[in-house]
Model the fold of this input.
Amino acid sequence: MALDDIYKEVILDHYKNPRNKREMPEATLRCSRNNPLCGDEITVFVLTEGEKVQEVAFLGQGCSISQSSASMMTEAVSGRPLEEVHRLIREFRGMMAGDVDPSEEELGDLVALRGVVKYPIRIKCAVLAWDVLQEALEGGTGEATGARPH
Ligand code: ZN
Done:
């Protein structure tokens, strides 16, 4: 199987079976944003304890890239010290900007999204969950622009 096909499988798997997709009432931080270009919506829930991110969950809807990126993100950052989470955010953004060669050890399944770099319009989809996570960690709550009836 070609590498691109393996990546596609990983993305589809996270899209169809999202990890940590649930409301987290005990979250200490939460933030919501959408990507009007594609109609993606993501809410991120973060449970912090001291300098550690204990757990991250998300809710959302939208394209496979945005939702699988959120699912992979929750797996990558849960249980890590804040400092490492910020490093992962930088590394992921660097990969999507095409100027960081991602380390599979650090990013895990997320390297599957590197193929998206070829489609500039989809980069926003891939980065959305990470924007929301970063904003949540900085104390923001986002904009309730996705507040339309479902
Ligand atoms: Zn999208």
Observations:
- Residues 35, 38, 40, 62-63, 65-66, 125 surround zinc ion (CB under 6 Å).
- The first helix runs from residue 3 to 16.
- The first strand starts at residue 29 and ends at 35.
